[in-house]
Amino acid sequence: VLVAINPYEQLPIYEQDVIYAYSGQNMGDMDPHIFAVAEEAYKQMARDEKNQSIIVSGESGAGKTVSAKYAMRFFATVGGSASETNIEAKVLASSPIMEAIGNAKTTRNDNSSRFGKYIEIGFDKRYHIIGANMRTYLLEKSRVVFQAEEERNYHIFYQLCASSSLPEFKDLGLSKCWHIPSV
């Protein structure tokens, strides 16, 4: 289990040289880090030939999605896939519609994911990434009817309202969109 804590500033601890420093190390030989957890999962997958899971936990705005990106970048780099493809970007961009439906503005983050994610990464026999998929679950339904002050509903609501004058909007079967003050 990886606990995400957002320091709210950029730190130089996720660079390529740090990935290489943690690659091949045993858990506990170096400081606790996302890359240490990812390396341990990667080694156990290769050694035991069994699926591994990393659970990323943390409060809202802690950086769980960013932590998952860093773990995917680690796998892509140590698995020899980093030069061929930017795997974390492809996985996280694989569902832009779900991002619009499941992300909203919160007091801590203008584009906060309001649902859980299950990301499954496939590896070949040489332990190179060959594909991935992302499933979402536990959508925060209460946001549909209520938002705290200075927060917003899901992005899709505002996107639909902004596009209500487009000709293709009629095909959606939505007859009317109310004026929403911008936040």
Topology order in helix (H) and strand (E) letters: EHHEHHHEEEEH
Strand order of the largest sheet: 1-2
The amount of helix comes to: 25-40%
Number of helices: 6
**Overall outline:** elongated
Radius of gyration: 19 Å
Strand tally is 6
Averaged pLDDT, please? 83
Task: Tell me about the largest β-sheet.
Answer: 2 strands, parallel
Write out the CATH superfamily name of the largest domain.
Kinesin motor domain
CATH topology of the largest domain: Kinesin
Structural class estimated from helices and strands? alpha+beta
Integer count of domains: 2
> CA-to-CA gap between the ends?
36 Å
The residue ranges in which pLDDT falls below 50 over 5 or more consecutive positions are none
Query: What share of residues are in beta strands?
Result: 5-15%
Q: Identify the CATH architecture of the largest domain.
A: 3-Layer(aba) Sandwich
CATH class of the largest domain: Alpha Beta
